[in-house]
Amino acid sequence: MIKDTVNFTKMWLFGHAQSNNPTIMLTLKNNWMKQALLEARKALADNEVPVGAVVVKDDQLLGRGYNRTQALTDPTAHAEILAITSACQTLNSEHLKGADIYVTLEPCAMCAGAIVLARISRLYFAVHDLKTGACGSVFDIVREPRLNHTVEVYSGIYADESEQLLKDFFERLRNNTIVECGYS
Ligand SMILES: [Zn+2]
Fold first, then answer.
1. Is 80 an annotated catalytic residue?
2. Closest C-alpha among 145, 163, 143, 161 to residue 153
3. Using CA atoms, how far apart are residues 100 and 120, in angstroms rounded to an integer?
4. Which of 153, 172, 138, 168 lies closest to 37 in space, CA to CA?
5. Which residues are registered as beta bridge partners of 105?
6. Could you count the other beta carbons within 10 Å of the beta carbon of residue 90?
7. Averages of pLDDT over each 10 residues, the chain, 184 residues
8. Beta-strand runs (E) in the chain
9. Helical packing angle, 109-117 and 79-91, nearest 10°
10. 79: CA distance to ligand 1 center in Å?
């Protein structure tokens, strides 16, 4: 059972935007998810599970990353972790208060934990991960009230495109053109 996330296409109606013009805000957010999808395509090109992420604040890109668990032989090298690390370096700060993270797939438990630790304000993800998603699908770490920080969660931007990338990857995997897969 998926815990409700705010449907993105309705989100701006509730006045979440920083601009009074909902069309402009929708375009901006779509553009950032497009950037995350570009990152995911880099992972696909490297035969990694195609997941990409960008961290943004005040409509400025702070960090980007794509899944590189195989390339770096590091199970923690998920797109979100690399994007958060990069954003923290950009700001020279361990916290990213007021920042948004855009991810093409619902973050896992590790990445959800990192998003909380980084104090990221808003999470936008494209497609739910019904097997390991930790932002509403299996767990809901980013909205766990016992933690000292919670995150606003929105889903569904470019969900079809993100899902297609993952399908392409796993189809290749089934055809044995990829030996191993990094995400469980
Ligand atoms: Zn992760």
1. yes
2. 143
3. 6
4. 168
5. 127
6. 15
7. 47 43 76 97 96 97 98 98 98 98 98 98 97 97 97 95 95 74 52
8. 6-7, 52-57, 60-66, 100-105, 122-127, 152-155
9. 10
10. 7
Measured distance between the N- and C-terminal CA atoms of the chain, rounded to whole angstroms: 20
* Distance from the alpha carbon of residue 71 to the mean position of ligand 1, in angstroms: 16
| Closest C-alpha among 37, 47, 6, 10 to residue 25 | 10
Residue 23, pLDDT score = 73
Which of 80, 94, 144, 180 is the catalytic position? 80
CA–CA separation, 64 vs 85, rounded Å? 9
The residues, any chain, with a CB within 8 Å of residue 35's CB and separated by 6 or more, are 52, 54, 61, 64, 102
Six-digit token string for 139: 């767990």
Residues 6+ apart with CB under 8 A from 21: none
Nearest to 121 by CA among 140, 103, 146, 95: 95
Handedness of CA 86, 151, 60, 107 (dihedral sign): positive
CA of 75 to the centre of ligand 1 (A): 9
**68's tokens:** 């590189």
Give the whole-angstrom CA distance, residue 92 versus residue 45.
31
